[in-house]
From TrEMBL:
Keywords: ATP-binding, Cell membrane, Membrane, Nucleotide-binding, Translocase, Transport. It comes from Pseudooceanicola algae. The lineage of its organism: Bacteria, Pseudomonadati, Pseudomonadota, Alphaproteobacteria, Rhodobacterales. The gene is phnC. Gene3D superfamilies: P-loop containing nucleotide triphosphate hydrolases. Pfam families: ABC_tran. PANTHER family: AMINO ACID IMPORT ATP-BINDING PROTEIN, PHOSPHONATES IMPORT ATP-BINDING PROTEIN PHNC. One of its GO terms (cellular component) is membrane. Residues 2-245 form the ABC transporter domain. This is Phosphate-import ATP-binding protein PhnC. NCBIfam families: ABC_phnC. GO terms for molecular function: ABC-type phosphonate transporter activity; ATP binding; ATP hydrolysis activity.
Amino acid sequence: MLQIEQLTKTFGRNNAVDNATISIDRSMMIGIIGRSGAGKSTLLRMLNRLEDSTSGAIHFEGREITSLKTGEKRAWQAQCAMIFQQFNLVPRMDVVSNVLHGTLNRRSTFASLLNLYPQEDIHRAIDILERLGIAEHAPKRAEALSGGQQQRVAIARALMQDPRIILADEPIASLDPMNAQVVMEALRRIHEEDGRMVIANLHTLDTARRYCDRVIGMRDGRIVFDGTPEQLTTGVARDIYGADAGFSEAATSTEIGALDRVGLTPVTA
Ligand SMILES: Nc1ncnc2c1ncn2[C@@H]1O[C@H](COP(=O)(O)OP(=O)(O)OP(=O)(O)O)[C@@H](O)[C@H]1O
Ligand SMILES: [Mg+2]
């Protein structure tokens, strides 16, 4: 379904992503973990063509992605919607207009101010907000919502594009544990109910283990682990994060008590 082949991105003399090969044969929820600077964001950005690769290839259902140009590239970007740590909403615009933005290109921002959306799109936006449990906030300004609610608005905006893949770059890094859980559960549900692939950069091990079918570990631009949450043992995690870093699982946990729930023993370095 999605094949990443020897993908490399070089900035100056630094390989941000170094010869990454990943083969995904069906829609899954995938977590990418690794220390700061490991190359997680660069990998996601190359996937949706926000960043050009230096070498290598990406195939989605047989089609080569890295060489797509103009209209085809934009169509691909609509098919793999991106969600960011900082939500990237228009803060002073109401929630439903933010969601409707998912259907428009930049040129139409003005139309949005004039409420020039097809009735059908407005209904769909409300339905999606309903599904995410935030329809009651539809008329409010985005900035009036909590972080967790804003991230769900960003997910709703992504869903308006009806994407095949949702790429999430640290979607819960700015959220408290409660909101983090709500957002991860929303992504999981979207994956299970719609069959959309979700690829999320996560900075905590426990989140990757709890919500993902498959976990990819990156270190210094390279893929150093690719397996199931069960295979992601403490020893493997230590290798991904660097044994010399005073590694402790607790330090990579979003949630107090999360380790207990997944039956893992916190390790001290
Ligand atoms: N536009 C850029 N120009 C130069 N170097 C860059 C650029 N973007 C990323 N890098 C470098 O590439 C490497 C990988 O960065 P990347 O942002 O992909 O890491 P990351 O795993 O997402 O880290 P974090 O967890 O901090 O978000 C780092 O060494 C970073 O400094
Ligand atoms: Mg990053």
